[in-house]
Amino acid sequence: MDNPLHQLEVYLYFIGDGDSHDDDMDPLDRVQFRHPQHISDEEALAVCGPMAAIAAFCDETFDSVKHIELKYKNVAVYRIAKFLLLLVDKKKKMKRKDLDDIFEKLKPRIKVGADIKGTDIINILSETMTDLELRE
């Protein structure tokens, strides 16, 4: 059976904390992490930008969004401090619970605090994705 992680894209997207400096940031610089690494800049922006916009809209208008079902992809959105962690099921074969289970495996390794840095999360994501792929 195929490893479900092979159909998963993972992104860490910096959303900031409302500081006006954050607004001036290049959108590509906001993509702090992508897995697999071969994802192009254009692809990363095509996923992260719209998902961040949808998440922001929902946060301001309704309630926090956690899952977004698109025509060809399922996306899970998790807020971690000043970042969005996006888990993207490229083939739309994973259920919400599957995506949540993967996040639950990542969550204990991510210690969120006021001083959390993107590089800390990036290192954790890299190690965890490698560990999970080796175990599956």
Please provide a written account of the structure.
The protein has 136 residues and is of the alpha+beta class. Helix content is 43%, strand content 21%. A five-stranded antiparallel β-sheet has the order 2-1-5-4-3, sandwiched between helices. β4 and β5 form a beta hairpin. The protein is globular. The model has no long low-confidence stretch (mean pLDDT 81).
| SS content category | alpha+beta
How far apart lie the N and C ends?
A: 10 Å
State which percent range the strand residues make up: 15-25%
Largest sheet, described in full?
A: 5 strands, antiparallel
Percentage of residues assigned to helices: 40-55%
Q: Helix and strand succession?
A: EHHEHEEEHH
Q: Based on DSSP secondary structure assignment, what is the total number of beta strands?
A: 5
Q: Which stretches are low in confidence, meaning pLDDT under 50 for 5 or more residues running?
A: none
Keyphrases for this structure?
136 residues, alpha+beta
Structure in a nutshell:
By secondary structure, this protein is of the alpha+beta class.
What does the secondary structure layout of this molecule look like, with pairings?
Blueprint: E1 8-14, H1 20-23, H2 27-30, E2 31-35, H3 41-61, E3 67-69, E4 74-80, E5 83-89, H4 96-106, H5 118-135
Antiparallel strand pairs: 1-2, 1-5, 3-4, 4-5
